[in-house]
């Protein structure tokens, strides 16, 4: 049977709401699954790892894997400052390496930066990792806020601030540990550290610091106290804005009253001046004629 175009449209309109509802339900279920996974991973690892820090961890592990593939598990390197310039010095048989054929490179060399080696590479990786982590934390905390029926706005901002602070400090601690280890090794070239030690050590330090900071946050209820502080600040600001608004309104009313009083006095003065001028120059007859005084 062939249906008319109008009947086909009507049938589509009857079907689409169910499809839209199904899509919304699927998105809610997906969001809830993401939030549950985020909370579960954080609880399992004691706050050392969650869905926001996981991409950064995987990224660092991938970078470390690339470096180990280039210089091998026993590959060693350290940094050394010569005439104010920082060099990355490699130990071992350079012929086995595919890209880093030389024995030393400036830390600004694109080759060493590409493998995540040296202070410049750590700075670049730190910036990109921070952007990834902050974006993930904001998205996850907002998603958790949307899925919650009890969380308030000040609690959302407290969660974002605390999570981002803990994640950033933990990430920075791992990067500093790696940079410090390589720099210390540079002072004693005989113990140049294997790349696997540097990479693994940075990851372990970052996870450990994140775990300890999460414990401190829970022990001192930092999120709760920060949320209360944000709430108090917001209320104080709102109260201050309200008071300022009242002062401005009162000043506006007072100014308006003064302007109106000035206008009344000016009108009386001009009226009186007009009458006296007509009286003196026009005489009583003209005055009485204009102002109807008999």
Write a concise synopsis of the structure shown:
The chain has 294 residues and is mainly α.
Describe this structure in words.
With 294 residues, the protein is mainly alpha-helical. It is 76% helix and 6% strand. The chain is built from seven helices and three strands; from the N terminus they run H-H-E-E-E-H-H-H-H-H. The protein has helices spanning 5-44, 54-71, 110-114, 119-147, 153-187, 195-219, 222-291, and strands at residues 76-82, 85-91, 104-106. It has a three-stranded antiparallel beta sheet. Helix 1 (5-44) packs across helix 4. The protein is elongated and about 125 Å long. The chain starts with a helix and ends with a helix. 21% of the residues are buried. The model has no long low-confidence stretch (mean pLDDT 82).
- C-alpha end-to-end distance: 102 Å
**Strands, total number:** 3
Succession of helices and strands: HHEEEHHHHH
Strand order of the largest sheet: 1-2-3
SS summary, helix count: 7
Question: Low-confidence parts lasting 5 or more residues at pLDDT below 50?
Answer: none
Helix content: over 70%
Largest sheet: 3 strands, antiparallel
Q: Overall pLDDT, averaged? A: 82
């Amino acid at each position: 049977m062939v249906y008319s175009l109008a009947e086909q449209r009507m049938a589509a309109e009857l079907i689409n709401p169910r499809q839209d509802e199904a899509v919304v339900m699927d998105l809610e279920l997906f969001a809830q699954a993401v939030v549950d996974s985020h909370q579960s991973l954080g609880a399992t690892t004691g706050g050392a790892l969650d869905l926001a820090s996981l991409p950064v961890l995987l990224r660092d592990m991938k970078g470390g894997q690339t470096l180990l593939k280039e210089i091998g598990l026993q590959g060693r390197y350290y940094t050394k400052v010569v005439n104010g310039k920082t060099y990355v010095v490699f130990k071992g048989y350079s012929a086995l390496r595919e890209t880093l054929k030389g024995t030393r490179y400036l830390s600004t060399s694109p080759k060493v930066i590409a493998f995540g080696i040296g202070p410049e590479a750590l700075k670049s990786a730190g910036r990109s990792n921070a952007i990834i982590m902050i974006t993930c934390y904001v998205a996850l905390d907002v998603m958790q806020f949307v899925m919650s029926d009890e969380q308030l706005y000040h609690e959302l901002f407290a969660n974002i601030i605390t999570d981002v602070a803990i994640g950033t400090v933990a990430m920075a601690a791992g990067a500093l540990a790696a940079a410090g280890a390589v720099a210390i090794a540079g002072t004693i070239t005989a113990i140049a550290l294997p790349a696997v030690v540097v990479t693994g050590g940075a990851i372990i330090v970052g996870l450990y610091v994140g775990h300890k900071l999460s414990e401190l946050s829970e022990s001192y209820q930092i999120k709760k106290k920060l949320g209360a502080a944000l709430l108090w600040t917001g209320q104080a600001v709102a109260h201050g804005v309200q008071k300022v608004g009242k002062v401005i309104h009162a000043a506006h009313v007072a100014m308006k009253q003064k302007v109106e009083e000035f206008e009344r006095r000016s009108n009386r003065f001009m009226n009186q001046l007009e009458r006296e001028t007509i009286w003196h120059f026009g005489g009583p007859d003209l005055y009485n004629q204009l102002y109807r005084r008999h």
